Amino acid sequence: MNFVPPDFSPAYPEIFLLVMVCVVLLADLAWGEKKPYVAYVLAQFALLGCVLITFATSVPEVVHTFSGMFVDDAMADILKMLVYVTVSTVLVYSRTYIAARGMFSGEFFSLALFATLGMMVMISASHFLTLYLGLELLSLSQYAMVALRRDSVMATEAAIKFFVLGALASGFLLYGMSMVYGATGTLDITHVTEAIQGGTINHAVLVVGLVFIVAGISFKLSAAPFHMWAPDVYQGAPTAVVLFIGSAPKFAAFGFVMRLLVEGMGAMVADWQGMLIILAVMSMMIGNLAAIAQTNIKRMLAYSTISHMGFMLLGIIGADENGYSSSMFYILVYVLMTLGTFGMIMLLSREGFEAEKLDDFKGLNRRNPWYAFITLLLMFSMAGIPPTVGIYAKLSVLQAVLSAGYVWLAVVAVLFSLIGAFYYLRIVKLMYFDEPETDAPILPQSDIKLLISANGLAVLAFGLFPQSLMALCAYAIQQSI
Amino acid sequence: MLFGLPLLSLVIWLPIFAGIGVLATGGDRNAPLARWLALTGSIAGFLIAIPLYTRFDPLMSAMQFVEYSPWIERFNIHYHLGVDGFAMPLILLNCFTTPLVVIAGWQVISKRVSQYMGAFLVMSGIVNGVFSSLDAILFYVFWEASLIPMFLIIGVWGGPNRVYAAIKFFLYTLLGSLLMLVAFVYLYMISGGSFSILDYHKLPLPLTPQILIFIAFLLAFAVKVPMWPVHTWLPDAHVEAPTGGSVVLAAILLKLGGYGFLRFSLPIVPDASQYFSGMMIALSLIAVVYIGLVALVQADMKKLIAYSSVAHMGFVTLGFFLFNAYGLEGAMVQMVSHGFISGAMFLCVGVLYDRLHSRQIADYGGVANKMPVFAAFFMLFAMANAGLPGTSGFVGEFIVIMAAVEVNFWYAFLAATTLITGASYTLWMYKRVVFGAVANPAVEELKDINGREILILAVLAAAVLGMGLYPSPLTEVMHTTVDDLLAHIARSKL
User: Fold this and answer.
1) pTM here?
2) What is the rounded distance in angstroms from the CA atom of residue B334 to the CA atom of residue B262?
3) Which chain B residue has its CA at the smallest distance from A468's CA?
4) What angle (nearest 5°) sits at the alpha carbon of residue A84, between those of residues A83 and A86?
5) Cα gap B195→A305, rounded to integer Å
6) Rounded distance, CA B302 to CA B298, Å?
7) DSSP β-bridge partners for residue A64
8) Which of B115, B145, B163 sits opposite A387 (nearest CB)?
9) Nearest chain B Cα to A367, which residue?
10) How many Cβ contacts (< 8 angstroms) between chains A and B?
11) Alpha carbon A81 to chain centroid distance?
């Protein structure tokens, strides 16, 4: 019997990144003490390399490899590209912040890259086990990143909460997968689909499995009622790590939802639609209502994330190509806004001072009108006010739920987004209407300055010309389903 | 098109880019530059809008100056602009008001001048966008975007309670418009994937969806007009806003609501509009009668004018839902005239406020002794606000009352009570503020208005009198549009 080596080419980006993580670790060992920036430069180089390799190896058709455990399609390529760009931006924004807090070391960068690798595996998984592997690689790296500041009580507490609840969610997910395995006799997503479509499978067992899988997914998405970890982790973890957790992994989570629910269990759409409606309504409700009461901006943004995930689910509920691509667009827009907002929080922080309270935004317009304007754009975009890109994200998911016939759900969604507008407006109010409490100058590095300006203006520019991003998402979904 | 230029795009984007230019002048060191740049930009914005009137064909029933190009293909959204006899006068009103507001804030605003001036210019362009959009999403984008500058104007340069007023203003308006967005998306589904407003006009709809859509539109537009009982944000916003903000709010932003009824509610859901016309007329009459009485007891001048705005806008909505040509035309005239008069009234109060820093009627008295020129102008505008024949205030109200007589005598009777209440609250306020003996030492110190203030008030006085004596330049551009709309409403869509 001959051993036929699998086709490695679809997995070249993952392989390259794995090698590069090892290089970063070794380089850190060699020069970490004296030249910590080597790890940073290598990490950025690794991400750049991934971009090039993904671009070079992308093919329009769907390719399976490793005996059907790994899939490479347009959606995977585009999501991965977005992940690279996001992680790279996160590293730029974080640089000054982590340097001032003694975290500028190889560990941070190698953990970030491991997490990135986990996301890539999740995005390209076409087998429950691959999916789970990617998810755990991502989660474990994240737990460690949250705990990176060992001396901080808050961070340690956050890490433990994150870990315990995360492990519980993984347990849910595995249990759900095992039920599906029990019913269908396979873990391969394409085979699961065929088995379910065959129609001979006990529906009740599948539904029980589905419930657990959806619970696991909603934990990873931080959708209510599985959202409890998010506010504590957002508040406790260093802002740079929060930025990481809150941004790129959402792409992976979207890929995860697509692979599991849409590709794997697409035939059970009627079952998971109802579950997702409950999750979406609860997330929008809890997220938006709880955010109003917060005084800590990171906690507030955690609740805002929960509500955004509720909105994102609306697109999935739409359950057609339009719906999925509108969800993907929502995630993209959400990540763009999150990057800018947390970038701004880190910009306002300085050595020995964390800009964590809402009041730290007071009078920003006096201190620096430009950053106030950028934050204004980001906040209005989060609230979904034109001419920023946020409105199109809301518009597309609303269109998806309405086309699925849920008029009431659309009305509920806009009412909650009205409530949401209040707390975003409050930040604008603090920046523009109040007097500053401090006149400490804001002096970011020039690359951070440029990037955050570009980030804010992108929210406006895509608000005026959203077509390209929408077309990208539509293309990704069309090519892959 | 003038020399092949896209006129509507110019009236939208020229003020916006001028506003960005003003913002770019930065801190208050460059305040004089910011002021002059803003003045140049706003006057250029007005001049570029004039050809919209001169080249407008009043006999044509289709949209004019149309621009059409794809914008967001994914949702079949177009950059589709065009004006008819309703939109064009409102665009001119807006472009006319902006330079006045810039001049009014010339000396008074000394902090963050570039941001103040920039916000007004940007808003002027955005509002032109609202009036000329023929694509529902484009309309929505401009409609919502107009909230942002006004929110900042009230919140940054407003009075002591500005934060409350600004947030109330924003959330109230947002509530209405979000449901309008749902209605748009719903229409998009029904119409088979179109966001074109003109397509919606032709779209047949059963009564139940019509009613739901009407309610969604009503929330958006009634808040903006504002109609009783969703008017409560307006007195707060007016009282706290700086003078320029009040002027634009009253003269321009309220018109967005009225325009919304004309462009959306009446033509898209005509049967629901008929169905609800009794309720709409009742709400309008409550605004006219009850809010008129509320205005009578106000102790704060700005609040009084704010309530009088609500009462006057009651005539506008009354005129819309009478479904005859006089009603619609009168309502349009009333909108433009209210733009001039309420703007002028707020400017007059602003003149006093700049000097004495009080809006309370009780703090004044005998102003005429110290500011005779001002008192003369204020008199004219107060008379116009009360609806004196010969001023523009009379024309609109009179036409609407005539239209109401045709429908039901009692509608006309109730509406006509405004001639008494309006005169009472305006002239009584005028008497207490301007006439009598000099009330206190602060009034004794008052200086009469300077050349800059005379210029603004004189321009507005000319507009008020001109429209009052010879309104046909305004009415004749809208005859065709009014007739078309009425013919359209008369055809059931069921």
Assistant:
1) 0.90
2) 14
3) B72
4) 65
5) 30
6) 9
7) A71
8) B145
9) B27
10) 94
11) 13
The DSSP bridge partners found for residue B79 are B69
Taking CB atoms and an 8 Å limit, are A422 and B144 in contact across chains?
no
| Chain A environment of B189 (Cβ under 8 Å) | 399, 402-403
A32: three-class secondary structure by DSSP: coil
Which of A387, A411, A432 has its CB closest to that of B152?
Answer: A432
> First CA to last CA across chain B, in angstroms?
38
Neighbour count for residue A57 (Cβ, 10 Å): 15
Largest Cα span, chain B: 70
Radius of gyration of chain A (CA): 22
Angle, helices A407-433/A297-318, rounded to nearest 10 degrees: 150
CA distance A19 to chain B (A): 40
Phi/psi for A64 (5° steps) reads -105, 145
Output the tens digit of pLDDT for each of chain A's 481 residues.
577 788 888 888 999 999 999 999 898 888 877 887 888 899 999 999 999 999 888 887 888 888 888 888 888 999 999 999 999 999 999 888 888 888 888 888 999 999 999 999 999 998 999 999 999 999 999 999 998 888 888 889 999 999 999 999 999 999 999 999 988 888 888 888 888 888 778 888 889 999 999 998 888 888 888 888 999 999 989 899 999 999 999 999 999 899 888 888 888 888 889 999 999 999 999 999 999 888 899 999 999 999 999 999 999 998 888 899 999 999 999 999 999 999 998 888 877 777 888 888 888 888 888 888 999 999 999 998 888 998 899 989 998 998 888 889 988 998 898 888 888 988 888 888 888 887 777 777 888 888 999 999 999 999 888 888 888 888 888 887 7
Rounded Cα gap, residues B392 and B384, in angstroms: 7
CB within 8 Å: B170 and A425:
yes
Nearest to A433 among B147, B155, B174 (CB): B155
Helix spans in A32-152 (H):
37-57, 74-100, 106-123, 128-146
Q: Taking CB atoms and an 8 Å cutoff, what residues of chain A touch B74?
A: 396, 466-467, 470-471, 474
Q: How far apart are CA B403 and CA B412, in angstroms?
A: 8
Per DSSP, B232 falls in state T
> Is B179 in Cβ contact with A411 (below 8 Å)?
yes
Q: Is the CB of A385 less than 8 angstroms away from the CB of B144? A: yes
- Would you call A422 and B137 a contact, using CB atoms and an 8 Å cutoff? no
